[in-house]
Amino acid sequence: MLPKLKRNTQIALFALLILAVVQGSFFRTAAAGNAPVQLNIVSNELTATFKVTQPLGESPATPSSTVEEITVTVDMGDGSEVSRATIRRTTAANGSKHDQIVFNVEQAKQTVERANASGQTTARIVIPDAKDEVSQLDITIPKDAVSELIQGGLNLEIYTDNAKILIPNSSLIGLEGDVYFRVVPIKDETERQEVEDRARVERVVKEVAGDQNVIVVARPMTIETNLSSRAVDIVLPLLAVVLPTDEAERAAFLEDLVIFIEHSDGDRELVKPEVLDYKTGLLGLKFRVNKFSTFTILNMDTATEHKSYMEGYPDGTFKPDRGISRAEMAMILDRLETGAAQDAGGATAFSDVASGHWASSAIRSASASGGLMTGFSDGTFRPEQTITRAEIAAIVSRWLELHGNAPSTFNDVAGNEAEKEIALVRQAGLIEGYPDGSFRPDQPLTRAEAVTLINKILKRGSLEWTSPTWSDVPLAHWAFEDVEEASRTHRHPTIQFK
């Protein structure tokens, strides 16, 4: 007998299921056959009777739905197969497709054995959807299979065309039940617009974007799981996203991307992702979460222009290991408007800097009263002489107006005229010494070292995701990103995260 119902209690009847909500839930499934199922509900003085007849042998599926089985591979991430799994794909009458896959204990055992034999630590289940037909994907890993993965020390990656889910082995330890994931891509344009509208008014978004425009990029994804409070990495592909062709603009666009997360518990969060390759020819955004719901890639047009301040040479080289001259440094300071006197009227006329010298104006500005550079006691500036590490420390100290006393930690700067400035700049974390405890104050400053230092001073992040501009500064060069940042005018995002 059912408990008493409150007036206006709603009762939902389905084709195969009688469902009554009574301060919770009550299920009763009709038995097969032609016998009626009667449900009497007394609600105060109201009585309602329902009769439901279920035909003999009727399938739970819609008569027009179809089911097919698809075999997929489990590999080591490089295409080398270690096991197989089966997708049960149901196509509904409206054409929507629902995939279900169970990674069972036998498949898990086989995967662990082969992975351990080859020294691999991650197994990948590849679930194809080349035609973009699937509207929902359910993945279940029974508890016995989970135990096999734990004991084998194996991480698990679920790879789909809409998302990658990377489950560290450490996040499986301690689990005593099945693990499931449900992946639902939001394909409907109206739903996507609703997500965009919600994002614009969310406090966490407005705190970062201010009045800037917020745009949904790519397809939002809903991912559900029972792995609560356990770290999982998600990678979302930039599907159907047209990236800028200009390398610098492309890099700035990618830097502007964030992940807006609408957690199922009501929390809202912005996460800065890592840009990486999703697959050949497609980029993805990787981020870590420990609770799930809807994930949306947003672009916040908050970029500002970063002008180049260092030039290369006509032959297409940058000469990163070449010492930077005093004239070049004066030009850099002039381009950056560092606070050197704008009126060079009080500058000293140096005997070795003719009025027609290519850097004469910058030298006069940098050496004017209150400027950052000084000449020598013999009345020369020595424009072609390379800047030393001691000289750049003195320039930086004046530039940032560093004052006070700092301990001298280097073994070779005692008595140097820039000893105090070297200590102050070292204390500010801008210049380091060498493993032997030396600073090498008289050693020339290279062009690569100069841009690395100046980028730190300007708080300009390294320019990532761009191709090499200079033939002698390839991607593998230690200062590649700093050289690109300094030598290319580009737009850079101003998004800041705590």
Automatic annotation (TrEMBL):
<feature type="domain" description="SLH">
    <location>
        <begin position="346"/>
        <end position="410"/>
    </location>
</feature>
<dbReference type="InterPro" id="IPR001119">
    <property type="entry name" value="SLH_dom"/>
</dbReference>
<feature type="domain" description="SLH">
    <location>
        <begin position="411"/>
        <end position="468"/>
    </location>
</feature>
<protein>
    <recommendedName>
        <fullName>SLH domain-containing protein</fullName>
    </recommendedName>
</protein>
<dbReference type="InterPro" id="IPR051465">
    <property type="entry name" value="Cell_Envelope_Struct_Comp"/>
</dbReference>
<dbReference type="Pfam" id="PF00395">
    <property type="entry name" value="SLH"/>
</dbReference>
<feature type="domain" description="SLH">
    <location>
        <begin position="283"/>
        <end position="345"/>
    </location>
</feature>
